[in-house]
Write a structure and sequence with these properties.
Layout (H helix, E strand, L loop, with lengths): L2 H14 L7 H5 L14 H16 L22 H16 L4 H5 L15
Length: about 120
């Protein structure tokens, strides 16, 4: 990539992910960071994540595995969340500063209306 292309990509990342470049350990620090009750995303964020997953799949950055043989051309049923986390979320958030995807999107956190549990 050329210098202007890299600069454009960094600007887009910072607009899409306002937490980009912040210290994830500080953001998640118990007592001094953003309280876990505010590690939230919006419906709009879920839509963005879906678009990002679709784009990453089309670009070959998310690929089927032995455990997840999803069809890369199926826009309704895509990769499992395990695949998304391993191939998209973890690399993205590591490059951004090691914070959760929620704090990457909202580094000050958001009030939560309800909670859906998860595990990786």
């Amino acid at each position: 990539l050329g210098a202007s292309s890299i600069c454009s990509q960094l600007c887009r990342q910072r607009q899409t992910y306002p937490g980009w470049g912040l210290d994830g350990r500080s953001l998640h620090a118990k007592g001094t960071g953003v309280p876990a009750s505010r590690w939230c995303i919006t419906r709009c964020d879920l839509r963005l994540l879906r678009r990002e997953i679709q784009a990453a799949t089309l670009q070959g950055r998310i690929v089927p595995t032995e455990l997840d043989r999803f069809d890369t051309t199926d826009s309704k049923v895509g990769p499992s969340m395990y695949t998304v986390v391993d191939q998209y979320i973890k690399p993205l958030t590591a490059d951004a500063g090691c914070m959760s995807w929620a704090l990457l999107r909202h580094p000050r956190g958001l009030p939560c209306g309800f909670f859906i549990t998860h595990c990786w």
